[in-house]
Amino acid sequence: MSIYRLRRNSAVPKSPPPRKAPFSERRSREFLYLPEVDALIAATQKTRSPVRNSSLTLLLFCQALQPSEICWLRWCDVNEALQSLLVTRNRSLSTRQSQQIVTNLQPLCPPEVELLEQLKEVRTTDWIFASERKQRLSERSLHHIVQQAGANAIQDAAAAQGVEMPFPTHPYMLRRSGLYYRSALLLQGLGLSLSQCCLLWNWHATKTPLSAQDEQKYYAISATQKKAFFKTLNQIRVFSGITLEQNTIDYLLGAFSLFPQLQDIPQDYWLSPINWQPQTLPKRLQVLKSNFSTYRSRRF
Q1: Are strands 283-284 and 84-89 parallel, antiparallel or unpaired?
Q2: Rounded to an integer, what distance in angstroms lies between the CA atom of residue 172 and that of residue 243?
Q3: CA gap 212, 65 in Å, rounded
Q4: What is the spatial distance between Cα 56 and Cα 70, in angstroms, rounded to a whole number?
Q5: Domain segments of the chain: what residues?
Q6: 78-79 β-sheet, strand order
Q7: Contact predicate 31/47, CB 8 Å
């Protein structure tokens, strides 16, 4: 018997797989503040495809897209006349072709329109975001682009001693920050605090018993504020494409993480949404079949 066979048959202890560090050890939070969003977008100018990558980061934040949603965008989904984007809100790739998925017609802000026009001039495929091989950009490549932009932002901050990106970044951080920002804009005019929002949610959506003091606080909230709160919750749910309100409430309350007490919200932020509330109503895909054919014939 050869030495090779003896070694192969001998009992060799297997080394355990490397331990995956929990998210709390990798980064202290899963969202970005607005100056960090600006720094991340500016850092994409140092990548190999600055126009494409800047458009990626803008749409991830402004439209709150998931990687599986943004990577499947085509030029026929862009309406140049209305300056809007037809977004297929799908939670997984396997359900993309389903006839029951929800689509939104979402308006674009001026910086998005400008960058998409620049990207249109150098387009090589029907995909809005294509790779150097003229194929659809993969989700893995998207994660690498955002991570590399975050690394560039760290280097730029170290050189200029400005806004620092203290942890690795990924696409979902931009989506989460965009939803936090939109939630803050909607909640700002309601006059509700974080404790009042939690109280409204616990009263209507959970079976958590409230103390006498909490019940008194609940009845102190006006009926107009209660109605506006749940209307805002539904707007965020429809816009994000999330099915369950139990998952949407985390994004709505995240507004207080981005802006504690909902103060110091910039009213002239360059990526602020424009009249997005009434235009993001859910529509069945079969209703939009005629619109799909119209968009494809335009070839934006």
Answers
A1: unpaired
A2: 18
A3: 42
A4: 8
A5: 29-265+277-298
A6: 78-79, 84-89, 102-107, 283-284
A7: no
Amino acid occupying residue 299:
R
Q: What homologous superfamily does CATH list for 29-265+277-298?
A: Intergrase catalytic core (1.10.443.10)
3-state DSSP of the chain:
CCHHHHHHHCCCCCCCCCCCCCHHHHCCCCCCCHHHHHHHHHHHHHCCCHHHHHHHHHHHHHCCCCHHHHCCCEHHHEECCCCEEEEEECCCHHHCCCCCCEEEEEECCHHHHHHHHHHHHCCCCCECCECCCCCECCHHHHHHHHHHHHHHHHHHHHHHCCCCCCCCCCHHHHHHHHHHHHHHHHHHHHCCCHHHHHHHHHHHHCCCCCCHHHHHHHHHCCHHHHHHHHHHHHHHHHHHCCCCHHHHHHHHHCHHHHCHHHCCCCCCCCCCCCCCHHHCCCEEHHHHHHHHHHHHHHCC
Decide if 27 contacts 140 (C-beta within 8 A).
Answer: no
Instruction: Give every CB contact of residue 6 below 8 A, 6+ residues apart in sequence.
Output: none
Residue 156 and residue 111 in contact, taking contact as beta carbons nearer than 8 Å: no
* Distance of alpha carbon 41 from alpha carbon 50, whole angstroms: 10
Whole-prediction pTM value? 0.82
The single-letter code of the amino acid at 253 is L
- CA distances to 105, 199, 202, 205 from 208, rounded to whole Å, are 37, 10, 6, 9
Within 8 A by CB and 6+ apart from 162, the residues are 39, 156
Q: What is the pLDDT of residues 122-132, one digit of tens each?
A: 898 999 999 98
Rounded to whole angstroms, the Cα distance separating 139 from 72 reads 10
Q: What does the pLDDT look like over 141-173, one tens digit per residue? A: 999 999 999 988 877 765 555 565 667 899 999
